[in-house]
Structure formats: C-alpha cells, structure tokens
Design goal:
- The chain has helices spanning 21-29, 31-37, 127-147; strands spanning 11-17, 44-50, 57-63, 69-80, 84-91, 102-111, 114-122.
- The chain is α+β, with helices and mostly antiparallel strands and 149 residues long.
- It has a single domain (15-147), classed as Alpha-D-Glucose-1,6-Bisphosphate, Chain A, domain 4.
- The longest helix is centred in the C-terminal third of the chain and has 21 residues, at 127-147.
- It is globular.
- It comes from Stappia sediminis.
C-alpha cells in the first residue's frame, strides 16, 4: 500500500473490554475515569478539560515518565451514547499553534457481556504519524483493558 493513500494514513484498532457499552463509553467522557487510562503506559494525565457536547472543546496534557508535557486538544463532533463518539485531535506545537488535525471515531458494540471498541483515526499527514499513534493508543488501551479486568 502506498504511503500517501488515505488508507495508509488511517489507523484502525479494536479492543474487547470486559464491560458494557455504557461503561466503556463513560470511560471516554468522564474526566476522573479518563485520567486513569489516558496516555501510554507510564504517562499520566494531570490536566483534563472536557466540555462533552457536540461542538464542545476538550484538551489534555499527558506527562511522560521523564517529565515532558504533551498537549493535545480537539472538539467533539458527535456524541451518540453509548454507540459512538467522534472528536478532532491535534497536538500543540512548540510555537503554540495546533498541528495537523485528525478525526477520531470510537464505536462501542455489545458482544455478550463485553464491549467491542473500535477506534478509527484519520487522516494522518504521514504514515509514520499513524504508526506512532498506533503505539500510543495500543499502550493506552492496555491500561483501559486492565481497568475493566
């Protein structure tokens, strides 16, 4: 697949969580719960601002184990509880501007007494950025999965 195709710059991840779709959905919109799993393993989320409504803004600061701060923000585009959540995503740049914006869609589907969570993030500027996000989300989802274990 060519690195410049939309498909090559789209990330899709799935995870089965040991909880119902409502609780899985809440993990994304409740600041106290989000702080428990947001960011790769070893990272914390000491700053969260969430105006959870369509058109509402959100922002977080993820703190690495080494102390570096990673600020990301966006806007909620769709909130369909407990089925789907859509929001934009952009990293704060060193000059204070927002970087390239992607869209994140998270879908929640009941599978017996569990939830199949599917994340699609698109369209990254470069496939390398998609790969970096794959590592970050996978690590974050490990924390989320343990939270519901």
């Amino acid at each position: 697949m060519a690195a410049d195709t939309i498909e090559a710059r789209t990330l899709t991840l799935t995870r089965t969580l040991n909880t119902d779709p409502n609780s899985a959905f809440d993990a994304w919109i409740n600041p106290q719960t989000l702080a428990k799993w947001w960011g790769p393993e070893g990272f914390t989320a000491p700053e969260l601002k969430m105006d959870v409504r369509e058109g509402g803004a959100w922002s977080t600061v993820m703190l690495s184990p080494e102390g570096s701060r990673h600020h990301v923000s966006g806007v909620y585009k769709a909130i369909d509880r407990p089925n789907r959540l859509v929001f934009t995503w952009a990293w704060m740049q060193d000059d204070g501007s927002r970087g390239h914006e992607t869209e994140v869609e998270v879908a929640f589907a009941a599978k017996g007494n569990k939830t199949l969570m599917t994340l699609v993030q698109k369209v990254f500027k470069e496939a390398e950025h998609r790969d970096n996000h794959q590592k970050g989300w996978t690590s974050s989802f490990n924390k989320l999965e343990r939270m519901f274990a």
